[in-house]
Amino acid sequence: MLHAVTRRNLKIYAMQQFDTVIIGGGPGGLACAAALANKGAKVLLLERKRRLGAKVCAGGVTWSGLGAKLPPELIERSFASQKISSSWQTATLHARIPIISTVNRMNLGRHMAEKALAAGVTIQSGVTVREIHDRHLTTSGGAFGYGTLVGADGSSSLVRRYLRIPSERMGIGINCQVDATFAEMEWCLDSKRFGCGYAWIFPHRESTSIGAYVDRRAMNASTLLERFLGWCAHRGLDIRGCRPRASLINYDFRGYRFGNLFLVGDAAGLASGLTGEGIYPAILSGETIAELIADPAADTGKLDRLIHRQRHHHRFLTRVGKNRLCSLLCSEAILLGLRTGLIPLHALEMGAEQPAPPQPQPHRHRQQGPAR
Ligand SMILES: Cc1cc2nc3c(=O)[nH]c(=O)nc-3n(C[C@H](O)[C@H](O)[C@H](O)COP(=O)(O)OP(=O)(O)OC[C@H]3O[C@@H](n4cnc5c(N)ncnc54)[C@H](O)[C@@H]3O)c2cc1C
Q: Does the structure show a pLDDT above 80 at 369?
């Protein structure tokens, strides 16, 4: 027994130590890693996929949140008008500046990884984290010691499970990247097929993302696929030769700071339950968590405002998602509101700079627990 314990301790002492280990090389993990390394921390980022950036995603980013801040070469296409249709109405909304742009997730991942590497982050891709322990973790490529651990490992987060935080509120997104280009960016609020969800056409430079998003409480992935295929046929969209790929989007936010463990992006449940927008929340939370790790009294105001907006989206979804009639009336009311300007488009965006919430967030400098 003594022999075994000694050998185990020796192994732990021999493993490489890092100030912070980040699990997940999506936008949340990469943003957090680069910001921390820029502050002089010794950071390791572990990503199970071989290539950073690969992700089932439509690649839509709001101009106000992220689009305007990205280097122009990363922007695939930008749209200052949006075509939105529902069962009873069709409208095209116009703005003077782009409303939404598209990005290629591989290119975004590459760009963010380059920035992280330049800041001094050690990146190991093709390495899956298997077990988390207090102050060290084991992976398919060996064990590593950490002072702080960041779970940026997406909607099925291992770190979240280690913290025993449930993920009950999830959206399901399904995406087909077709080799065709379209002139317009379109949203289809077809409540008969998708309830409070929607289908989209997001054109990129040489391809187009066609997909659908719903709340998992409304339907499962196979029903969504069936309805999505029905919608494509109804719209005359040719998706032959493209394999639809589905993935979960976690919007069950229950805190981001748990002692020396932090959650970022989808792992924290920070995507919008209403729209599925998650890239901007992942990047903002990654950057804010880096600030907090460097200085526990750092200002988290911007992230707190995003959380406030995210909760609004969730409450709205819960109210209107109760039944078909509610969903139908609500999609019609939303579109009417958007057409008449009663609902500003940015009310649906996670990235728009938002007014401060009425109450200051009490958890700002405290550990956040799973209670809500
Ligand atoms: C169909 C679909 C369409 C979408 N469209 C949009 C959109 O248009 N705009 C938008 O803003 N959002 C969209 N989203 C949501 C968006 O993709 C996510 O919210 C965003 O990617 C979250 O970023 P993240 O860094 O938190 O997690 P992720 O991007 O999921 O990255 C997590 C990373 O962790 C890695 N990982 C997980 N477990 C381990 C482990 N044990 N060891 C090592 N690595 C691990 C994964 O491989 C992954 O690379 C869409 C989602 C879907 C499913």
A: no
